[in-house]
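Revision sheet: structure tokens.
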Amino acid sequence: MKKSGTGTRAQGLEEDKKELYPSYEYVAGILRESGLKEDFTASGSIRYIHRSLPEREIYFISNRTDRKVKDTCFFRDGTLAAELWDAVTGEIRTIDNLRLTDQGIALAIEMDAYQSYFVVFDVVKEKGERRKGKESTGLPEFEPVMSLKGPWKVNFDATWGGPRMIVFDTLSDWTTRPEPGIRFYSGIARYLTTFDFQGRFSDLRNSEFYLDLGRVNNLARVTLNGKDLGIIWTAPWRLRITDALQKKDNRLEIEVANLWINRLIGDEAEPWDGIDQGRWPDWLLNGAPRPTGRYTFTSYRYYKAGDPLSPSGLIGPVQIEGKRHKAQGISK
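Predicted:
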């Protein structure tokens, strides 16, 4: 082991012959054998980055799996004064369920699929002595209120080969549809449905309501009753709708954008009419009508017909959830 200006690092680690970098478990074992406390420990599903500032210790934790994780994280340089920062929503909460242990500061937490947080410790202000009692996840609970099963009116951009309007009785991946204009579509499609709120509307005074889109490929903008609620670009696909929700005749619009890949693959069913041997095509140079049914124009054929399509569209399930804050844990 060798001391450096910013801490202690290990030298001479044997490099695994099959891996460029030694595994997390291997490095952790070296630290334990050397008598050094690990900077952060949790299950293999949660990974982290740690940065130190004069008045704060900042840990970024991330659930790298597609499933919900319930775990206890241990922070070597943590304190009993901390906040949880959600970089996606901008929400900041005070953490009240921290415990001092031999492994460091312990935080019991639940994280949705691919969810991440900043855990920001205040190194100046401490809150009390060792905390006792049963551990709590410390996060608000989301309770299902109602499902939005459709039918959904879906509008595609006809200039990119999609139908102007079609009805989806149930939500599905565009690439599983029988219509070529949907299966190979790339661009934005607008989903529309209406619904009456089935929960107790009086709960709006004591609860917050959220729209959970289930799964989206790859980007969504949500509008409820004419109010733009913002863009969702990562899991969990959930946003707050309390201020826009009404008892009757709710109009929900969800614009979904996917990747360009599918249109490029679909176009490979048509003859090539692009750049050939370093020359622009004659139809383009002469301003003539395009001779094929292609929608895209590229300088290179990146895909071929039959290549795997990229999952696309609003997959769901879509539901409204209520959020109630726990008496203990992370407070608002």
